[in-house]
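Run log, item B.
One chain of 499 residues. Sequence copied directly from the ordering sheet:
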Amino acid sequence: MRKLINKIKQIWRKIKNIFKVKKMNFEFPNVIVKTLEDKIDVEKNGKTDGNNNIPGSDSTHLSVCENEAVVQITELKNREVKKASEVLKNVMEKISKSQAELDQENFHIAEFVNNSDTELSTADARLSNLKDKFDHEKQQVRKFKLENHLSREPRPLTAAKMLIGFFIIGFLFVIELWVNSNLLAPAMSSGLVEGMSIAAAVAGLNVFVSFGVGYVALKNFHHTKTLIRIISQICLSIYLIFIFYLNWSLGAYRAIHEGTGTNAQDILLGNASIDTSALQAHFPWTIDLTFTSLILVFVGIGFAIGSLIDGYLFNDRYPGYGSISKDRNENHTEIHRVRERLSPETIKIRTKEIRKTNEKKQSVIENILRKEWEPSKTELQNIFDGYKKFAIELNEALTHAIGEYRRINEKYRSTPAPAYFKTDLGKKMPEDYLDPTKVFIGYSDVYLSKSQIEQKNADYQNKIQDEGNEYIKQVNNHFDSILKTRIEKLREKYDVKLD
């Protein structure tokens, strides 16, 4: 519990410190003469000393009361000087830090050169890697063309072609499923639901399997190896016979239903019979097809042939030719993309650097010059000027207090007053006390008057602006050099072609 309370107190102190209003300027107190005279009790001591003829007529030393006035003034001066020195210490640290940042060179072209060179070196390495891959893949394509006696360029599969191919088979499947489901529904015992299940199975064969057969078997018709061509032709022939038989049978079952009113499922399960001398369901060509059943047959066969063609045209028609060139073409495209982006990327670096430079100029002027250096210099100047006024007031207070003491003392004396009463002995502070450059000797070198601060502020602003503008000029010169030399060389070096 105690730890929790302590933690809350710490957090509260931090919150108070955040919102605590700090006094920005040190001010010397006003010197009130009466306060000094009351402290040394001028009237009482003057009267008492006068009645006792103190100090003696031949005395050359200040009386106790006069010495007390000097001590009080000196202590007040020393106390306030100590406080001011603590403030000046912090002010001096800010001045030293901010002035070091203002005097230094804030913009370095070497950093921009390194960044731009790194960007181009990275691009060079990437292009080199891509070109090595491209050259290898280009050689593979050339070798493939020679081995398969091809003279044309490959037609690789693209994202657009892939989408079109998949859209076609998807569209064919949906259309065939819808058409066949409605045409088969009357011939099925469960109606549309069963018709849809049968239609889905047949549509899957007609569309998806046909697409795969077209993609594999039809493409191999171009293969240089005779055995592969023959196998592909045999497989395609068998598949075509199967597809024709399947769709013709489907139409025949629809025709049987129209001719006899019997469901195809009942015939297959033996729950119904037909005159086999007139109809042989396992030989669909023995069935006289109706118009509706013909539609069913031609939709299935037509969509199967369409899917075969779609599979054949999907990717290059020669098997493997499109795939082997895909990586080559992708690397070729990427090489040209990187080449074309060299100038824009470098321009982006330059634009970013110019923007950063302008922001940095403004930041140095606003945050270092105006928020650190100028307020610190002004604070130092205010302390020096404030001390001058404070020292004058101290001197005047001392003069008045001692003068009042001597006037009262003379009034009550029975013997002549000491000769020094007519002089300034004790009535004036030492000259060194009046000069702030001697009182604050460690800070006098950085003191500037108000007009000098304004002039120095303007000089620093001009310096920062000039440095920033010169740096931007160097950035532009370096950019032009890069654009005319390295970028053009890189473009020329990696200008690759497909053939």
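Observations after the first pass:
- The radius of gyration is 53 Å.
- The first helix runs from residue 2 to 19.
Flagged for discussion on Thursday.
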